[in-house]
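User: Hello! I'm new to structural biology and keep hearing that structure can be predicted from sequence alone. Could you demonstrate with NAD-dependent succinate-semialdehyde dehydrogenase? Please show me the input and the output so I can see what each looks like.

Assistant: Of course. The first part below is the input, the amino acid sequence of NAD-dependent succinate-semialdehyde dehydrogenase. The second part is the output, the predicted structure written as tokens.
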Amino acid sequence: MSTALLFTQSFIDGQWLKGEGEFDVINPADNSVLTSVSRVTAAQVEQAIGAAERAFISLKNTSCEHRAQVLERWYDLVMANQQALAELMTKEQGKPLAEALGEVKYGADYIKWYAEQARRSYGELIPASNDKHRISVIKQGIGVVAGITPWNFPIAMITRKVAPAYAAGCSFILKPSEHTPLSALALAHLAHEAGFEAGAFNVLLSDRAKEVGEQLCASEVVRKFTFTGSTAVGRQLLAQCAPTIKRTSMELGGNAPLLVFASADLDKAADGIIASKFRNAGQTCVCVNRVLVDERVAEALTAKLAERVQALRVGDGFSAGVDIGPLIYPGAKDKVLQLVEDALEQGAKQVNQAASLDGNYVAPLLLTNVNAEMRISQEEIFGPVLTVATFSDEAEAIAQANAVPYGLAAYFYSQDISQIYRVGEALEYGMVGINEGLISNPVAPFGGVKQSGLGREGGHQGLDEYLEEKYLCLNIG
């Protein structure tokens, strides 16, 4: 592994700071120790808050053009180091190198998008009802932002938070996942090289996320908290942010359905299902969790899916031709296997042959005869297991799709234009893919409804999450 972008200490106020004690970063491909990193102290968290506060005072007086140019340089540096960043990601996260390369580009695209959006935080002039008044609205950065990001997309989950925050003139304190801190540190280094002011982007390393999160939530200085992770943790963070009335954005759990109607192109549907379900070994919040198919075409679709699932290759992310890498840690594998066992005990059928694999690897599985009462239908699988259930008509399909407390992403395949409008409007989800299994895009708002969260990332909406509106009333009389 190249050491050019390998750092092992927290990045605070433009400096690498050693904490107290260490924790290991594990390679999920073989459970070996990649390196040990220094654990941040409570005093250093306060130091980061102070540095971010000073940086915000400076940032809010910079021009949008300055911030745009800094972001453009950050984008250029990330892309110039695409290979090194991808290799680092595969080492600490496990995804195939080709996927890691794609994520670096995807994450960089958020930086590029918000470099452009930095120039577009428009206000407005409002016609007054009083001839002596002139009314305007301006937008200003909300202040110091704290964020916690997950391990499954260790670059993209960071850039789509930090880039819009900086574009809005906000400083950022990041607590990345303890499983994938190395990608975060590399991004912070490149941001500093690009011209981020000292304290504008701080990275805190800790395997004690609860303690760091509580400290950031309690701070009066931190004015916004952004989190990507489980619904259970999101609830806790929202409660902790309540006393200081922080602005929050929460991208939480999902349980994405994919509906296949009788009019669908079944080959395209099968390809879309495979692309969505097995990306990152099924460890994505928007991947297909439940396939619901019209009973009239269920047998034909299942045959196409079985053929495609059987062709998928599992292995180390650096091996050529690998489609699926390891799960992130042993407990993740245990949960997936428990869900499969529970489903099989309740009558689900395993369609394909799948070997039992050592380490953190799980062979891709296709299960049919699944029903809504099974745990595997109610919980996020977060692994390479595809489940298929059937429906008899459109109303039943929509009811099954909506019968969960989550509402992040949903998908459906149909060639009936009237049905496309009906179903698209009826699905209770923040994002809907229609004849498409991969929907994430920097120019579009990413986020969910119900217990899948609050706020949006991406699009022009993502910039607004970091801006406050201020009403100005001028008396000219």
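User: So the tokens describe the shape?

Assistant: Right, they're a compact way of writing down the 3D structure. Reading them back into a model, for example: The first strand starts at residue 10 and ends at 12.
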